[in-house]
Amino acid sequence: MTDQVYRPAQRALHWIIALMIFTLIPVGIWMSNRGEANLWDGLTNSLYSWHKLFGFTALLLIVTRIVVKLRATAPPYPASMTKGEVSAAHAVHGLIYLLMLIVPLAGWAGVTAFPALVTVGGYNLPPMPFVPVNRGLAETFFFIHKVAAISLAVLALGHIAAALRHLIVKKDGVFQRMWPR
Ligand code: HEM
User: Fold this and answer.
1) How far apart are CA 24 and CA 16, in angstroms?
2) Exposure pattern of 46-66 as b/e (b: 16+ CB <10 Å)?
């Protein structure tokens, strides 16, 4: 059993970013399907605009979260966890962090290369530095964006299952380390 918890800033960022990602993924799939079906109406354009603005905001929060994480030490795991469980947790968390960077960076690079930087209310995102305008390159970035986003969704589901196992089966306080209070 552990009673040490993550810092309030880390817990707040964890839940805000989780909510944003679980909104961005279905909206991303919905708008892409409408785009592929050539349904370029007001709804599709709004979905794209909001997805880009929300996704870029998520990128800024994710970078903030990584900086906070690098400056803080994580609370220790309970002694009841095996070495294998701790290594698996570290591996999955590391991959989730990597994908949380790759997904929005690839989306931003894609809209820079396309170019399609306009978002809500005509507000333009800044172009990603050093990315040229090139349709073929944009398609490659969007492909990476899609594959990484689906991999992120799969890993996040595994992460949720593991967290619920700690809460319901193991009852070892690991879930509560990240729960808001
Ligand atoms: C963590 C943040 C993000 C997540 C989880 C996410 C997720 C997704 C998903 C699941 C799709 C659907 C892929 C498909 O089925 O083809 C998508 C599409 C798209 N996303 Fe994101 N996204 C994020 C950030 C961004 C950012 C920052 C931008 C741009 C500034 C962006 C721009 C786009 C665009 C333009 C598409 C359509 C791509 C196409 O038409 O092939 N996304 N996103």
Assistant:
1) 12
2) ebbbbbbbbbbebbebbeebe
Q: State both tokens at 77.
A: 């795991």
Residue from 107, 111, 103 nearest 133 by CA: 111
Write down the residue that tokens 């990602």 correspond to.
21
Residue 134 amino acid letter:
N
51, 52, 96, 144, best to mutate for ligand 1 pocket (most atoms within 8 Å of CB): 51
pLDDT along the chain (181 residues), means of 10: 84 98 98 98 98 98 97 92 96 98 99 98 98 98 98 98 97 94 80
Alpha-carbon span 158 to 169, nearest angstrom? 15
CA–centroid distance, 28 to ligand 1, in Å, is: 5
Encode pLDDT of 78-118 as tens digits: 999 999 999 999 999 999 999 999 999 999 999 999 999 99
